[in-house]
Amino acid sequence: MRYRDLGGTGVRVSEVGFGVWTLSAGWWGDHGHDEAVRLLRLAYDLGITFFDTADVYGDGYGETLLRDAMDGVRSHCVYATKVGYDWYNHKRESGQREHPQDFSPGFVRFAIEESLKRLGTGYIDWLQLHNPRLDALQSDDLAAELERLREEGMVRAWGVALGPAIGWRDEGLYAVRTRRIPAMQIIHNLLEQEPGREFIEASRDTEAAFVARVPHSSGLLEGHYTAETAFPAGDHRNHRPRQWLLDGLQKVERLRFLEVPGRRTLGQAAIQWLLAEPLMASVLPNIYDEAQLREFAGAPESPPLTADETARVDDLYAANFGLPGPAAR
C-alpha cells in the first residue's frame, strides 16, 4: 500500500480506502456483523488505513461497525464520516429515498457529537458535509462553525461529499472555486468522468484533493458482469434499467486492453487510472468479499497505465466508446 496527503489538510490516507457504505447501508447485499468486522480488519492488515462512513449509513450502524472493527488500532487509522441528514427526528418512511437534510450549525455540531460517540473516538479525521445543496455551501455561519469544531479538536479537517442525486455540478464548482474547500469526495471513474473532470481542472491552482467513490462504476469495471448477471432484490443495481448493464458491458469490452495477465486486472487498472491524477488522494472501491478486497488493495502495486494506454482511454471516452449517443465534452 502507498499513502498520499489529503491536500493541505494534514491528513494522510492510504491510496485505496474502504467505504463502509458497502457493508452497512444494505444497498450491496446483506453482510453479517462478524463478516463485516473481519473484512474491515483484514483491510487494515493489508495496509488500508482510510475508512469512510456516514452517520446515516444504517442509521448509525456504519459508525459503530467501524468502531468494533478498529478496536485497538484507531490511532493508526483515518476516520472519515459525514453529517447533514436528519435521521434522528425523521425516520425513513416506506418509499422515501432520503431523510430531510439539516445543515444548520447547531444540528451539525449535534450530529458530530453523536458520531463521535458511535465511533468511540475523540476526533474525526475528515468530516464531510453529506450531499450539501448550494445554500449550505454558501452559509458563512456553517463554515465558521466547522472551523470552530476544527479548532476545538473534534474535527481535524472538513470537506464535502457530493453525489448526482442533487444535480451536483454547481455545488462542486462553488466548493472548489469560491469556498476553497480543501478536500472533496466525488463519483469519478473511467466510465463516469463528468463533472469530476471540471472539478479537478478547477482545482489545479489550489491545494485541494479528491477522493473517488464508485471507481468501478457500480461494479461494471470489475470486469465480471455478463448479460445474464442478476442482482439480489435488495441490491441497488437491481433497480437500474437493463440498458445500463448492456451498454456498460460493451464499454468494458473496449477497455479489456488495460488487463495485463498475471500483473494487472481490469479492476486494478480502473484504480490506477484514477491514481494517475496527482490531485486524487484515494479511491473508495465497493468491497463486499475477501477476494475483491485483496485485488483492490493490491492495485497500487500493479503496473501504472502507460501514456499510450491513457491516450487510448481518452479517445474511447471522447467517442462514447463507439456507442450511439453524444460524445464527451
Concise synopsis of the structure shown:
This protein has helices at 21-24, 33-45, 61-69, 105-119, 134-137, 140-151, 169-177, 196-202, 242-253, 266-275, 290-297, 307-318; strands spanning 3-5, 12-14, 18-19, 50-52, 78-83, 124-130, 155-161, 183-187, 209-213, 280-284. The protein has 329 residues and is of the alpha/beta class. The chain has a single domain, classed as TIM Barrel (Alpha-Beta Barrel), CATH 3.20.20.
Write the layout of secondary structure elements.
Elements: E1 3-5, E2 12-14, E3 18-19, H1 21-24, H2 33-45, E4 50-52, H3 61-69, E5 78-83, H4 105-119, E6 124-130, H5 134-137, H6 140-151, E7 155-161, H7 169-177, E8 183-187, H8 196-202, E9 209-213, H9 242-253, H10 266-275, E10 280-284, H11 290-297, H12 307-318
Parallel strand pairs: 3-4, 4-5, 5-6, 6-7, 7-8, 8-9, 9-10
Antiparallel strand pairs: 1-2
Helix pairs in contact: 2-3, 4-6, 7-8
Architecture overview:
With 329 residues, the protein is an alpha/beta fold. The protein contains 12 helices and 10 strands. The protein has helices at residues 21-24, 33-45, 61-69, 105-119, 134-137, 140-151, 169-177, 196-202, 242-253, 266-275, 290-297, 307-318; strands spanning 3-5, 12-14, 18-19, 50-52, 78-83, 124-130, 155-161, 183-187, 209-213, 280-284. The strands form 2 sheets. An 8-stranded parallel beta sheet has the order 3-4-5-6-7-8-9-10. A two-stranded antiparallel sheet has the order 1-2. Strand 8 (183-187), helix 8 (196-202) and strand 9 form a beta-alpha-beta unit. The chain is globular. The mean pLDDT is 91.
